[in-house]
Every structure is written in structure tokens, then in C-alpha cells.
């Protein structure tokens, strides 16, 4: 791919693919983190030193006339990555760094402007040039595998080779009567679990006296070593989100909707299942956990695929021995989420594949459609570290 032109690179990507992805991304309304701590002084100095070398490298190349614009954008990108990713090294990117950058570019594509695609491509293309600079000057001090992974992810974005993602609008629901849906939902462990939760808080329950409740109201990152807890935390989270219970200081008490469980109305239980799915597949925009959000995204795609004719493979028991760090944690969180959905009866095993039972699909699809794997931020304060200032620089 030519590297002597920044403007107009958007035309190099398949238009239909870019438009389709932008529309689906917008439909999912994916949003990333709201704010991040500023990079440390040492990282800031390291970025400045590397940018100085990058400018010299550009000045000696065919990109010399655009070295100032390119270096300014890359400097902004590195600074924002350092703020968004704890422990980020500007000369040793991890795959998660590239993933975050590509996601930022995808969200720029959502913008309804003539320059959105060029802006997104400039962001990714200049990052590719920067990584090439690190390699050619022997300044890259990460692993060869991570370098290859990052280069491949960024290149795939430019070439439009990313796999198509399913969206709720892609699913054709079967004809399901209210009676069939009510019977299927009543057979799930969800309703008895919520009944038990409401009964347990009837006289007030101290949050600290129940580990699952404590985790449901807490903000600590999910530890893969504690994933044996199963679906219990998800039931508590659903009870809170649907106001079956409320948290009054340090005490859990029956909520405004606690009485609605007794009636077991078709509409009520439909909404409970939809909210149960939404809650467990949504992230926290104010306290983002990238690995958990990626696991949520995987689970969303699994549920959607499990409502099509091409059912997803059941990967339970997959060997993760070669993974480590955040890659291992992400894989473990994915495995936990899928196993939990099976435990809840929302996914069922059919030999080697997984499916959502037909009578559950209307409620499950409603929940998936509202899920926010990366959480939600205030639309009026787009303070995403890789959305605002980087976009401004990329479009200039």
C-alpha cells in the first residue's frame, strides 16, 4: 500500500464493507471509556523522544512533506493510548493496544460526514507507519509476535478484511405464542432465583453478608480465578437492574417492582429475561474493563449466531495453555460467559453446537439488542481518549 498519501486513502477500502460495518457499529452503539489518568512523566518523555526520531525518519523518506502532520497525529495517538491503557509502552505495543485503536477508527466511521472514512484511515495508516519506523530503526522492544499481531490488525482494517459481525436486525424470529414463551421462560432457573433473592432481602440484607451481592454492586474487575461462582452474580445484578431489590446504603431491601414477580405475567417475564441478558452482556463505561468487554462482545455474537441456521460451535474445554496475561484473561472470561449462559438455560447444547431455544428467542434478542458490551458514556461529553483529540488531529 502506498505510503506517500494520507488524503484520499478512504477510497482504497471497499465502500460497501465500510458502510455496512459503520451502520452495524452505530446500531450496537458501542462506546468506550469516558476518561483516563494522564500518562506518567516517564512515558511522556519516552513518547517525545520517539517522535523526534520518527520525524527524522519521515524527513528522510518520501513522506517528508507531511512529516509534521503525521508526527502530530501519532504523538496524539500514543499519548491517548498511554492514558487509556495502563502500562502502555510506546515502543512495545500489545495486541490490545491495536484493538483499541481499530475500535476508535471504527467509531469514527460512524460519523455522518464526508471526511469520516479518510479520518479513520489516517489514524490507522499513520500508526502503521510509526510501527514500521520502530522496526526499521531497531527501536521496537516488544515481542516479534506482538508486533506481527498489531501490524496485521491495523492492515486488516485498511484492507477491509475484518469478518462481518451479526446484528440484532439480522435475526429472523420464529413464530412464538405468548403461551409458548411463558412456558419456556418459566422453565428457566431465572424466576426461582429472583424469587429467592427477593425473599432473602425481605427484612433487609447487609451487602457485606453475601459475596454474590457484594460483587454485583461492586466495581472490582472480574477475577478469572473466581469464575466458579456461576450465574449467581448475574441473578443479583438483574434483580438490582429491574428494581426487584434496591440498595439502601449498605442494606439490600425489596424494590419497587418486587411485587411484579408474583403475577408471572407474560410481558413481565419477557422483560425480565431481556433485562437479564442485557445486564450480563453490558460493560461499565465509567470503569471500563477491556477484556470483559471483549468477552461480552464475543457472547453477543455467540447468542446472535445461536439464533441463525449456522449455529456456533461449542468451544467448552478449549485449551488456553499457550495464552498469558490479558489474552488469557480474555479467553477465560469468554469461556465463563458462555458456560454461564448454558447454565442459565439461555444457550443449549445440540451435539457440538449451541442454540437459543426458539421460544426464548424474542426475549433474548430484545436483551442482546440493548446490550452495551463496552458500556455507555454521556453523548454530550465525548471524552473518549481515542475519540476526541485523535479524531481532530486525524482530520487535519
Account of the protein in words:
With 396 residues, the chain is mainly α. The strands form 2 sheets. It has a 3-stranded antiparallel beta sheet with strand order 1-3-2. A two-stranded antiparallel ribbon has the order 4-5. A hairpin with a 2-residue loop joins strand 4 and strand 5.
Largest sheet data: 3 strands, antiparallel
The termini sit apart by 22 Å
The general outline is elongated
Task: Supply the helix-strand structural class.
Answer: mainly alpha
Could you give the order of strands across the largest sheet?
Answer: 1-3-2
Q: Mean pLDDT across all residues, rounded?
A: 80
The counted number of beta strands is 5
Q: How helix-rich are the residues, as a percent range?
A: 40-55%
- What string gives the helices and strands in order? HHHHHHHHEHHEEHHHHEEHH
Strand-residue fraction?
under 5%
Number of helices: 16
Q: Which parts are unreliable, with pLDDT below 50 for 5 consecutive residues or more?
A: 1-38, 377-391
Q: Tell me the radius of gyration.
A: 23 Å
Amino acid at each position: 500500500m502506498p505510503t506517500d498519501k494520507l488524503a484520499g486513502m478512504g477510497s482504497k477500502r471497499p465502500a460497501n464493507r465500510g458502510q455496512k460495518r459503520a451502520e452495524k457499529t452505530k446500531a450496537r452503539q458501542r462506546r468506550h471509556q469516558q476518561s483516563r489518568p494522564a500518562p506518567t512523566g516517564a512515558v511522556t518523555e519516552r513518547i517525545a523522544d520517539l517522535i523526534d526520531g520518527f520525524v527524522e525518519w519521515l524527513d528522510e523518506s518520501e513522506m517528508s512533506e507531511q512529516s509534521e502532520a503525521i508526527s502530530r497525529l501519532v504523538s496524539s495517538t500514543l499519548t491517548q493510548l498511554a492514558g487509556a491503557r495502563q502500562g502502555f509502552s510506546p515502543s512495545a505495543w500489545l495486541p490490545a493496544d491495536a484493538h483499541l485503536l481499530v475500535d476508535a477508527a471504527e467509531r469514527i466511521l460512524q460519523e455522518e460526514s464526508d471526511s469520516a472514512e479518510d479520518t479513520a484511515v489516517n489514524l490507522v495508516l499513520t500508526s502503521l507507519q510509526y510501527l514500521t519506523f520502530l522496526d526499521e530503526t531497531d527501536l521496537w522492544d516488544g515481542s516479534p509476535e506482538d508486533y506481527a499481531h498489531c501490524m496485521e490488525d491495523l492492515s486488516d482494517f485498511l484492507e477491509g478484511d475484518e469478518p462481518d459481525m451479526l446484528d440484532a436486525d439480522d435475526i429472523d424470529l420464529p413464530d412464538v405464542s405468548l403461551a409458548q414463551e411463558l412456558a419456556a421462560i418459566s422453565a428457566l432457573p431465572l424466576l426461582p432465583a429472583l424469587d429467592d433473592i427477593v425473599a432473602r432481602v425481605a427484612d433487609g440484607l447487609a451487602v457485606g453478608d453475601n459475596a454474590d451481592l457484594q460483587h454485583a454492586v461492586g466495581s472490582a474487575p472480574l477475577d478469572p480465578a473466581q469464575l466458579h461462582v456461576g450465574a449467581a452474580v448475574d441473578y443479583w445484578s438483574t434483580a438490582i437492574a429491574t428494581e426487584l431489590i434496591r440498595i439502601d446504603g449498605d442494606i439490600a431491601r425489596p424494590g419497587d417492582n418486587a411485587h411484579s414477580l408474583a403475577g408471572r405475567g407474560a410481558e413481565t417475564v419477557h422483560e425480565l429475561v431481556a433485562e437479564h441478558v442485557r445486564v450480563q452482556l453490558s460493560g461499565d463505561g465509567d470503569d471500563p474493563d477491556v477484556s470483559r468487554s471483549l468477552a461480552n462482545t464475543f457472547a453477543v455474537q455467540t447468542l446472535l449466531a445461536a439464533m441463525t441456521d449456522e449455529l456456533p460451535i461449542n468451544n467448552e474445554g478449549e485449551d488456553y495453555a499457550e495464552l498469558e496475561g490479558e489474552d488469557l484473561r480474555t479467553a477465560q472470561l469468554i469461556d465463563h460467559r458462555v458456560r454461564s449462559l448454558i447454565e442459565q438455560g439461555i444457550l443449549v447444547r445440540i451435539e457440538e453446537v449451541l442454540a437459543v431455544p426458539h421460544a426464548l428467542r424474542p426475549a433474548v434478542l430484545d436483551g442482546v439488542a440493548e446490550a452495551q458490551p463496552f458500556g455507555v458514556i454521556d453523548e454530550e461529553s465525548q471524552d473518549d481518549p481515542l475519540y476526541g483529540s485523535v479524531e481532530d488531529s486525524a482530520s487535519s
